[in-house]
Amino acid sequence: MDCDAKERKGSPLSFRVVVPAWQVAEYLGEALESVRVQPFGQWVCHVVDDGSVDETGAIADEFCRKDERFRVTHQRNAGVSAARNRALPEHGAEGEYLVFLDADDTLVPDCFAWMSEAIRQNHPDYFECGGGVKESYLMGRAVLEHFVRTKILYGYLWS
């Protein structure tokens, strides 16, 4: 964390989103769109196409053409860890906070806003968040009733 971040209460924090991508053409557009529509803060998003032979690279390139906050690197397939690592030195130190986003996941609306608020309130050295949906085997009307009666969404926030 930038030592001055605690003092800059009014200025927006900046985020660097890293998206390793291999053969995820079916999901990548939705993931990148969830980043693009974040209304809060400053961010850049670096997609590393890890040697995909589907349309993954073309989708990433299209986001890059339409929005200057997106960066794309194409490399031979080297695995998810190598793809993440490739994004780190590629564009210097853009963003105070590093966000890893899997290509088949999405950010919730206003994600950067609530992350910024949590960071400002708690001044963590390390910040991790995530979420998911509990597994369920219900069908038909039982699904709706289950939504009403129980909490099937969960998440966590560490600082």
Automatic annotation (TrEMBL):
It holds the Pfam family Glycos_transf_2. Residues 17-126 form the Glycosyltransferase 2-like domain. GO terms for molecular function: hexosyltransferase activity. This is Glycosyltransferase family 2 protein. It comes from Candidatus Spyradenecus faecavium.
